[in-house]
Structure formats: structure tokens, C-alpha cells
Amino acid sequence: MIKIQNLHAQINGKEILKGLNLEVKAGEVHAIMGPNGAGKSTLASVLAGREDYEVTAGSVTFDGQDLLELATEDRARAGLFLAFQYPVEIPGVSNVNFLRTALNEKRAYHQQDPISAKDFMAMVREKSALVELDAKLASRSVNEGFSGGEKKRNEIFQMAMLEPKLAVLDETDSGLDIDALRIVSHGVNALKSPENACIVITHYQRLLDYIVPDYVHVLYDGKIVKTGPKELALELEEKGYDWIKETL
Amino acid sequence: MGHIIDPKLADFCALFKTNSIASLQALHAPAAQYLENAVFPTTREERFKYTRLQKLLNASFSPETKLEKEQLQTYAIVEDAINIYMNGSLLILPENLPTGLTIEALNSTSNHFEAEAFKDVFSAMNCLYANNGCRIVVKANTTLEKPIQIIQVHAGAAAFFRHQFVFEKNAEAKVILANFSLKDAVGFSHTHSAIQVAQDARVQIQKIQACDAAHFDFNEERSNQASNSVLEINTYTLSGGLVRNDLAAIVQGEHAETKLNGAYLLADQQHVANYTTIDHHVPNCESFETYKGIIDGAATAVFNGKVFVRKDAQKTNAFQSNANVLLSETASVNSKPELEIYADDVKCSHGSTTGQLDDQALFYLRARGLSEKSAKTLLLQAFMAEVLEVAEPEALSQFIISKIQERFAWEN
After folding, report:
1. What is the pLDDT of residue B1?
2. Cβ atoms < 10 Å from Cβ of B345
3. Cis bond leading into B41, ω under 30°?
4. Residue numbers in A near B378 (CB within 8 A)
5. Beta carbons of B383 and A92 less than 8 Å apart
6. Closest Cα of chain B to A3: distance in Å?
């Protein structure tokens, strides 16, 4: 699905990713954990194509394509989805209208006809129910006036609508209470299939009680320094990130 | 007529013939006197500080093309309307008017224009040189079902137009005043509208400015409101080379409401200047003013909005805002909101913002698969929504949106 090799990236001349390697296959869930400043969100931003970041070395192959050559929108259309750590509020832009445009531009990219209004609305009803997002919220301005939990549920709602091959969840658990965490996780788990994959970026172990990973990676100082089964997350929680620093 | 001292102004005035409109005779002497001592505006003059008029002086106007009624009709925006068509000195008035509405040509003897303090040479020239226009009276207690649609199509040459709108007591009407010009026809037009709104009258005027880049499109509105009246003037500047709007609303009756909205969309070398004045003379009135602009290319926009609250105008509620989005490095805007308050028990606010599109929002939309172009379109439409939603009927708002899409190559 995605193969990241020796990825180096910098922002404003400061190197953040320093030779990151990661491979995720279809059907897998990978968790990336690490202390603040390790480069977790940088990885998410670089994968989505945020222009503030400059890739100085390495490669990313997504579904057989050179991901780094694609514009942000083409990455999305090719099936990459980033759930934002801080979803942006966009006053005046209707959530469902923009999603319909997004969906249709994706379909056009894959030489498919636009979705009918009827099918689209049925899909909105089905997918918003999945994350218990009020249909009224779904049609309001993008994230405007949403609570922290509603914003994150909206991210997963959009993910459900766009049906990506690879979803990157960037600290989706931050700012969520237990109920919201359960709802968001339920949404992510319901969307899991043998054809898609998920990278869960998180600082804390608790999200992984709900979204159970196949692999846990520890990102530290711009590199993956440790990989293990889901139990690694528990060990990290218990021993703290200092334990990783000591073992290096 | 006296002798104009400034040679540039004299040259420009020489393009026109003094009219013989009866209702303007009384204004000829003060207008001529004003021009004698005036100079052709330069950027040293506050009201023209950001507007270079050298291009207007240098322009060699295209010979005027006479258009037929059938051609003029193709410019109509709203299908079901009371239509007035104008082209140069041609005026086509509608037949079978509804009860309570009279429309006459500018030279109607019932016309009466108040003496005015000229704000610039063009105001004065209009009194002397206007040779086409109409007088529209909506009688007391009349509600017009259909809008009055005035279609002015400019086809080269330079001309002054003058309209008088009289909305009598408790009248209700909607007016569309649209300016178009032929492609590549170098021309100048200056349209003056005197608007009287009597007690309890409710009036909406939608100005559509869709001239070609070769045209100089100047406009001025002078309105006067009596008590309990509502006047809304929306100015949509969609194209045109150099466009000027000088709008002055005087409020002289209590509990009156004044709403001014503006949307201006500029690209290429376009220049659009909006000067507005709302003058509150009496207590208990409200005014709301919102102007929004999108400026691309090397275009320049000017917004200068003045709100006066006179000593007696207690309990005035005046709100003004101007917001701009610059789409290129070379686009610019000069925004100057001004409040002058002489009463002590009022609620007034004003604000002006100029920025670029929100990069974070743009990235968010693109990360969901929207092209940069459609993401920008969505964000700009959202920015403009507030001033576009007052564009009615539906046909008018559709017209505006299609022009915007054409102009910026926006997508649906």
C-alpha cells in the first residue's frame, strides 16, 4: 500500500524527519507513537503534501505511484486521507456541498460519473450515522462552531464518505473525551477492510484500546527506532518515552 | 456659459453639448460657475487620490454604434420586468404601465432637480450635459409586483445620463439599473440618479455594472429618505475598465433604514472606486453598509465610506464594514472607513479588513481532493455570500454568479 524509504524532510531549514522507513500493507493498522517533537505530525503533513515542508531525500511509493510527485488533491483522489489534528473551520462553505465536490472530483479522476444527488444524500445519512454526527451538523459550514469532539467525528465522517485506501489519523484522540473516543474509534473500525489500511498517529496508548493495531512503531528524533506488536504500546505507557531514549 | 480656465477640463468639456432640459436650466449657472474654477481631477485631490484619470483624458472614444431595440433586449437580466432601454440618445420606454407608475423621459416638464453642492466636476458636468434619462414616479400606496429594469448599453462615445426616481408615500418598488458596453468600444458614461424616498416607502435598487474593460463607467446616486422608509442600494461591479461609484444617502426622517451593499470583483488592470456617504440628520435611524471585494491581477480598488451622525441624530445605529481579498501580489486596495459623530447617544461601528485566502482552509479542502481552483472558488463564494445573498430575484443572482465565474474562470 505505502512504502516510505529513508524519508528526510525539513521546515524552515530545520530537519525534522531524518531517514524514516515504514511499510504498510493492505488490511493493516499501524500505530506510530512518540514523544512531542519526534516528527509525528510532520510525517502526516509530508504525506498529505503540505507545502511548508520540504522533502530533501527519500521516497514514498503509494499504490505503485511516486506519492511525492503528486499534488495534494491528487494524493487525496488516489486514495490518501489525512484526518487533521486541528480540523480547519471554514465559515460559509457547506460541509456536504464541499464533500460532494470532493467526491465528484475524485470520481472524475478515476473516470467515473458524478454521484446522483439521491445516492449522495443516502450516503450522507448512512455515514453520518456511523459517527453519530447530527445530520444538521453535516450540512453546516465546515467545522464552524463545532466542539472538539464534533470536529473529530466530522473528520471520520469525511473519511467514511471518501472511502480512502489509506487513512492517516493525526492525533485524532487529542481533545476527545471517552465517549467521543469510543464513537470515533467505532467509525474507524467499521471502515476497516482487507483492501484498505490505516496509520494511527498518537501520543497516548488509550486510543489503541479501541483501534487495535497490528504493529506499533516508535518515532523518535525523526526516525522509527522501535517496532513491535500491539503490546509495545502498553510497555511504552508503563515505562514512558524516556525508556526509549535510554535504550538508544 | 463661462470660460473654463483649466485647459484639460476645457478640452474634456468640449466633447459635450449643453442640454436644453427644462428641469436642469436652474442648475446650469451654478454648474458652469463650478467648472470655471475647477481643474480636471488629479491624484492631488482627496476624492481622486487613488484614481488616475489621465487615461480618460487620453482616451480616443470609439464612434458611437446605434443599437436596435432587439439588440438592447438581449441584455435584459430579469425576464419579467418593466423594461427601459437606453443607448446613447435612444430611450425606449415601456408600454402598458401598471397603475400607480409613471415613466417619462428626462425632458419631462414635471421633473424637478434640487440644487446640489457639486462634489466633483463630473457632478457639475452632468447638470450641463445630461441628454438622456428618465423620470420614474411610483405613486403613493403602490406596490410594484415587477421590478423596473433599466438597461443602459454604451457603444462608444461619451455621454451623461440622468434619472429621477420618486417613491411616494408608502410605495414599494424594486429597480435594477444595469450598465453594459460593447466589447472593445472605448466610451465614457456618467449616470446620475436622484432618489426620493417618501415616508413609509420601501425601495430596493440593484446596480449591475458589467461594462467592457474599454469603458469608463461613472455613477452617482443622491438619495433622500423620509421617516419610516427603507432604502437598499446594492452595487455589483462585475467588470469595466475604470468604474466609479459616488453614493450619498441623506436620511432626514426618523425611523428610516438605509442599507448599502457592494460587491466588486476586479482583475487585470481594472480600477474600481466606491465612495459612499450616509448622512444621519435625525434621531432613531439605522444604517447598514457592507462592501466586499476580490481583487486579482494588477487591479486596484478604492473604498471610502463616510458615515455622518449629526448633532440631533441621537439613537442612531450605524454599522459599516469593508472586507477585501487580494488574489495576487500586484493587486491592491485602499480602504478608508470614516465615522464622524456629533451626537452622544449612538451605536456606531466600522471595520475594514484586507487579506488573502486562508492557506489552512485551502490546504484542508485540497487534502479532501478539491482542485486548487475549486477550493478557491468555494472560499471566495463563501467570502462574498453575505453581499450576494441580497441579490434578488434569482435571475439576478444567477447573472452575477455566472459573470463572476466567467471573470475568474471559477468552476461550479
Report:
1. 52
2. 9
3. no
4. 93, 97-98, 101
5. yes
6. 20
